[in-house]
Structure formats: structure tokens, C-alpha cells
Amino acid sequence: PAEVAELRARLRAVRHTVLVLSGKGGVGKSTFSAALAHGLAADENKQVALLDIDICGPSIPKMMALEGEQVHQSGSGWSPVYVEENLGVMSVGFLLSSPDDAVIWRGPKKNGLIKQFLRDVDWGEVDYLIVDTPPGTSDEHLSIVQYLSTTHIDGAVIVTTPQEISLQDVRKEINFCHKVKLPIIGVVENMSGFVCPKCKKESQIFPPTTGGAEKMCQNLNVSLLGKVPLDPQIGRSCDRGQSFLSEAPESPATLSYRNIIQRIQEYCEQHHSQEEKMI
Q1: Domain AAA+ ATPase, which positions (predicted)?
Q2: What is the domain-level CATH number for residue 129?
Q3: Is 186 strand, coil or helix?
Q4: Closest alpha carbon to 52 in 24, 73, 31
Q5: pLDDT tens digits for 199-247?
Q6: What is the per-residue DSSP string for 41-70?
Q7: Longest C-alpha distance within the chain, in Å?
Q8: 3 state SS of 151
Q9: What domain range is 144 assigned to?
Q10: 154, 16 in Cβ contact below 8 A?
């Protein structure tokens, strides 16, 4: 009960919480989480927090140009590392002496750090808390859902790529969400086609042999939030720690990201209104 009270007190000022999930590694969860955080923080009136709970493979510090930054302790807890005044980040990457250090931890230690991130980080007043998770349906996922259930979670965004080998694991993630009663905001299909910048011809680098995310969403009665096409600039922006949305504002991928972000915002506002009515 004391721990629950501490978590509630710390997260009381968080208005919306969105988890970014996928059963598969390498589908672009962290890339999407970074783009979502940048997109939401483009509104200077919104305070955004990005929490990286990928303990063994933290890539958010690199993507947000925060490598080498350290976590500072204050009287009110750990202070997030800020990209902009309205965009704070927390990651195990800030606790390592080198980006190449391996984190070789068993489940209980991972769970303890996730709890510490939620209980001890002084986020302040936050409109959106984005949680970037590792692949799978294991310790980190159970821990974050369990701890956040003491307050509230708006839902999960599930990221996939079009090919069946990815969809197979994503179906497991959707099943996980149903079992732990985690609402699903919708699915994002990443790396969905590639338009050649010279000839403008579209190619399917990862052919959707079984109908892709669209068919899966129809079968499982889940919303498809949108499809993000491949763009080499996305990888370059991530490597440099820059916002792809700002660097390539006219790219078809940017337009797709913006539509998806708008749909997530609309879902969160609707979810918040329903919760207030229930109260």
C-alpha cells in the first residue's frame, strides 16, 4: 500500500500515458517513440516525457542526442534530461559509464529500476508520458502495466512491419494486451513501402504476403492508426539525434507520422473525457 501511494503521488500530475509496444524487435518502436515525443512537443503548451524502459538495449539517448548525459539527483527525486524545455527523457542509458556497456540483469533488478523510474523521477506536470518498451511480453511489460495500473494508462500503440514474420509476434502482443486489460489505441505499420526519390516508383521492400497490418487489424478488430513508408532520412535523423519531423517536413513519412500523432491525441482526449464522466 505504501508503494502504491508513492506511485500515485508521483504520477498524479501525468495527464496521459501511452505505451509503445511490439512483440518483434527491429520494427522501429524506439524510432516511433522518438517521433511521437517530438511531434507532441512541437506544441509548446504541451509538456512531454519520454521514458525508455528497454533496459538491455536503450537507444533513446542516441536518438534524442543525449548520449553522455547524466541523471542528477535533487530534493524532489531524479531530474529528467531535457531535449527541449517541454520534452524530458529518462533512460538506463544515462546510468551507464559508456554506451557500449552491457546491462546483464535478471528480472527482479529490471523491475526494481522500472519502479524507481516511475516513483523517483520528478517529471512535474506532464501532458503526455510516452513509454518505449523492449520487444516481447515479459518482465518489463508486466512490471510497467502493473505499476501504472495503480494510476491510469490511456493505452498502447503497437508497432509492426508488413511481413508475416513480424505480424506473427505482434498478434501475441495484442493477445498480451487483452490478457492484462491494457487498452489498445491502435497499430502502426512501419516500413510500409518505399517511394524512390528519383523515379517516384513505389516498391514493397517488405511484401505484405498475408495482407499486412491492415488485414490483421480487420481480423482482430483493432484500429489501424496508419502506415509509415520507408525513408532513408529517418535513419539519418535518428543517428544524428535530430527530429525527422523537423528535418523532412514535406516527406510522405512525416505526413503519415503527423496523422498518426493526431489520432493518438484524439483517442487520449476522448479516453480522458470518459474517465472524468465515470468519476
Answers
A1: 15-186
A2: 3.40.50.300
A3: strand
A4: 31
A5: 878 889 998 999 999 999 999 999 999 999 999 999 999 999 999 999 9
A6: HTSTT--EEEEE--SSS--HHHHTT-TT--
A7: 62
A8: coil
A9: 2-277
A10: yes
Give the side-chain half-sphere CA count within 13 A for 204.
11
Question: Using an 8 Å Cβ cutoff, are 158 and 186 in contact?
Answer: yes
Task: Let me know: does 64 contact 89? Beta carbons within 8 Å.
Answer: yes
DSSP state of 135: S
How far is 49 from 51, CA to CA, in rounded Å? 6
Residue 196 backbone dihedrals phi, psi, to 5 degrees: -65, 125
Q: Which of 148, 143, 177 is nearest to 49 (CA)?
A: 148
| Total domains present in the chain | 1
pTM for the whole thing? 0.94
Burial classification of residue 102, based on how many CB atoms lie within 10 Å of its CB (0-12 exposed, 13-18 middle, 19 or more buried)? exposed
CA separation for the pair 179, 233 (Å, rounded) = 38
Total Cβ atoms within 10 A of residue 5:
10
DSSP 8-state code for residue 85: T
| Grid cell locating 9 | 503521488
* Distance of alpha carbon 49 from alpha carbon 17, whole angstroms: 9
